[in-house]
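Q: How would the structure tokens look for this protein?
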Amino acid sequence: MSTVMTFFTELKQISRKALLLLLIAGGVIGYALAPDEGFGVRFENRSAQMITAIKLDFGSADGQSSLQTFRLASGESRTLFLNHPSGAGFNVQVFYADGQKREFCALKGNKDLRPTLVLQP
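A: Here is the predicted structure in token form.
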């Protein structure tokens, strides 16, 4: 009888180890196969003043979208994810605390999925 109990105790230990290994392997495989988060643009404020707003306009033949973010302090950065293909370019308007406004077309032809735009007046 003790041999049977020993067998089941060992089986439990093996099962726990196997389950733990399967969970770890599943997590690693799931992470590796997870879809990319998309096109994320990092905006970095290198000016000496607050950026009060950043407005992005982008689109395609099927539609047009706008995205705004507010209050980006000097020296801070923020990443915005766009539902837009990389390399297609988009329009940017940057509004500074002193009233300055900067407008430009960004990243046309740049296929990087995580580009950084340095903002300064």
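The radius of gyration is 25 Å.

Helices lie at 2-33.

Upvote if useful.
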